[in-house]
Write a structure and sequence with these properties.
The chain is mostly beta strands. 9% of the residues lie in helices and 40% in strands. It has a single domain, classed as Immunoglobulin-like (Sandwich), CATH 2.60.40.1940.
């Protein structure tokens, strides 16, 4: 009996591990998100030429990974929300607070969306937060962490959705952005 218990325990552990979400087979559809246009790669907080407010246009594509699906319509993806986080590329660490917002559109299985435009307003009030407020003349005009007049960062954009069959699907992309004050306007 003493030999059976360890063997039974090992088998039970393997069975539970095989059923966990971590080991679960991936959904037969994959979302890909790519930046198709980035009209602004440098944002001038003082405005100026080229400051249209459009940060990026992204394309969201749905790829069917398993063609042996009996009802491909169940692989359509309803995109429900997006999350924005930030990371610095200039050696600084201070970033705006992350946030999530709701979305609601359908991406048909095996197709691509019309372009989705992300505007400065979609990113909230990040430019009134640290580290950007330090770039204003009344606050010294330089990032206190790097000593530079520009903050270089990535906007990390992630979308979340579900197939109509109920499988969770995500996609992400990175949008580089430099932020400065009175540096000659915005540039592509």
């Amino acid at each position: 009996m003493k030999k059976i218990l360890p063997v039974f325990g090992a088998l039970l552990t393997l069975a539970l591990a095989a059923c966990s979400d971590i080991n679960r087979q991936a959904t037969p559809v994959q979302l890909l998100m790519t930046v198709t246009s980035q009209p602004i790669s440098r944002e001038d907080l003082n405005g100026g030429a080229g400051c249209s407010g459009n940060i990026a246009t992204v394309n969201i594509e749905s790829r069917i990974l398993n063609s042996n699906v009996s009802n491909p319509g169940l692989l359509d993806v309803r995109v429900r929300r997006y999350r924005v986080t930030y990371s610095r590329t200039d050696g600084g660490h201070l970033v705006p607070a992350p946030y999530e917002r709701s979305l609601d559109f359908l991406v048909a299985a095996g197709s691509a969306t019309n372009s989705v435009l992300f505007h400065l307003a979609d990113f909230g009030d990040i430019f009134s937060q640290a580290p950007f407020v330090a770039l204003l003349p009344q606050n010294g005009g330089r990032d206190p962490e790097t000593g530079l007049k520009v903050v270089k960062m990535n906007i990390n954009l992630q979308i979340f959705g579900d197939t109509l069959a109920g499988d969770a699907v995500t996609a992400s992309t990175v949008i580089p952005l430099d932020v400065c004050f009175d540096c000659g306007g915005c540039q592509p």
